[in-house]
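Worked example 4.2. Below are the chains of a multi-component assembly; read each line carefully before continuing.
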Amino acid sequence: MKTVSAPYQFKGGIHPDYHKELAWKSAIERMPNPSELTVPMSQHLGAPAKVCVSPGDAVKKGSLIGEQNGFISASVHAPVSGTVKAVVQSCSATGRSCQAVVIESMDDGETEYFEPIVEWLHTHKERLRNRIGEAGIAGMGGAGFPTRVKLSPPHDKPIDTVILNGAECEPYLTSDYRVMLEHADKICIGAEIIQHILGAKTVRIAIEDNKPDAVRAMEKACAQERQGIEIDILPTGYPQGSEKQQIYNITGREVPRGGLPMDVGCVVENVGTSLAIYEAVVHGQPLIERVITVTGEAVERPANLLVPFGTSYRKLVEHCGGVRESVAKVISGGPMMGFAVGSLEIPTGKTTSGLVLLPSGCIQQFSSQACIGCGRCVDACPMGLVPSELSQFIEADDIEGAERIALMDCIECGSCAFVCPAHRPLVQHMRRGKTGVMARRAAADAQTRK
Amino acid sequence: MDSETIKFILTPFLWVGLTGLVIGVSLALAAKYMAVREDPRIAQVTELLPGANCGGCGFAGCAEYAKAIVVDNADITLCAPGGAACVDSIAAFMGVSAGSVEKMTALVMCCGDDESAERRFSYNGINDCAAADALAGGDKGCTYGCLGYGSCARVCPVNAIIIEKGLARVNKALCIACGKCIAVCPRKLIKLVPTAAPIHVLCNSKDKGADVKKVCSSGCIGCRLCTKFGDEGAFVMDGFLAHVDYSVPITREEVIEKCPSKCIRRN
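Applying the procedure described above to all two chains together yields the following structure tokens:
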């Protein structure tokens, strides 16, 4: 085990105010089970899970309530024991609606977990992959890509490096930081399980240099004769936590256009995912809860909570002592990549990393103006794109033109919009353009199939 | 003037004159033997069309449509801006019967403006309805209602649409029923209705009455009073939403007062 500074540094990026001091001292506390949970069937990327319980059924903590539905999908388990009250349509933070199972909780302490695999080092890799699949684990960094799929690369793409993403470059959020401080041992074992499944030579744990105690905790946990684990300290900056940028910083490899990390022999997993893998394999616990940071200047008592999925945002805020001043903006996730939400009646899920409540003094509303051609977005873009030109193509409805200058390589990190002096909603333009490209590609696919 | 000078002046005249003659004769022959004959009626039908070139008929412009009428026997009732008068004159000219064509107008099937309909959050992004709709389903509390960011008004070739209190309104005196606004509306809220129809149900929400009331005070709650007090068959229920059947003549306009949420209105 050794600790090094990351040898490379991606181009661009920004330095927003971090505001992590609000919540980073609060230890993870378990939130009491709410009386009623609304567990959405789509907490991951891909097809929503298929509901496999009906109203009136009794479920135990960990019982399967949603079956994996297709290759890119993940199963959903009951986060608490209780009775299924109804199957309803519920709204996610992005405004999409999906089916959800409403469970009336009952604290009987009963669980229905999988059989623990203690001797995982001597267990067949396929069995471990299946366990990760049946436990419903999806990437907990934010995108929610099913982990089983990520851990099953094709044979012609050997993986030599596993990167554990503990950068947490989003302002305000401290959930990964607290997880690293308090569960470093478990994260290390999770990392070793991933390394074992993929047959990777090295594990690199990436942490930004503004979290020295997380680095120390991970060093301590990895100190005992663990092979091939290395801690890479990244300079603080946004978006250090982005997959492609992190791979470049640590290995110097660039993920090709339209490609995946596996094309350059890497797999990146969030530290939270690693913890979930440890729980699923060693304790047989499916993914039913996660650590969520509830923070922001408008919250009475910012905290890092261990929350069962399906708890509504309102319950989180109530548990943190309610709001201090009038809230002007509520963001699900971090302020850079998260979604502003219009209601607190949204259930938490596998990808909810935080809830940021901001008072009116902390936010500004701008009216956007025409591009002044200053090029600051070009300097800030970590993907080397030209956001100003892209946005103008999209504004003129020339989606093809935008696609030609690499619209689809945009990672929607928001660095361009952050620096834009004309306050142009650049990320919104990019998302709109991408939707247009996807629609066109789908139409073209349908045409060729005909 | 000596003969040299005369020759010096005359030679170019002669050459240019001769070249002109040859080109003139060949053009005359070409015009006679290589002529492309266009049906003169195409130009005449083009004259009869209003010349708005709006594309609402589905052809590239008025001339293209005229060509389609003359050459391909296209339907002569497609020109919405021209209306019945235009169809009648084309029918008389082409010697075909037109049947009856009703003048149509676009209508925004929503009356929930910022006074009666609630907005869930304040939207501060691209001024475009499709972009607003893509962001968490739009800021309007009602997922069926008009977002009011004016995408329809911007595509209207005759500026017939205005945005008032966060709601798009079509001026039926200006509307040429070209259908461009219908295509651009992300909520599919604009419909072509007969200009002569006196009353409309200005709501598109298929939600249950209680859910509608939560977000809009002027949405159709599906109470069916209009089917009771209106003319026989003039109001049709589609789940929790009433529609006007425009084929039924309306005589009893008191239904406007009977509607509890006042979403039955004159246009």
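Take a moment to check your reading of the output against the notes. Chain B has two domains: 40-94, 104-266. The beta strands of chain B are 104-108, 161-164, 167-170, 190-194, 199-201, 235-238, 241-244, 264-266.
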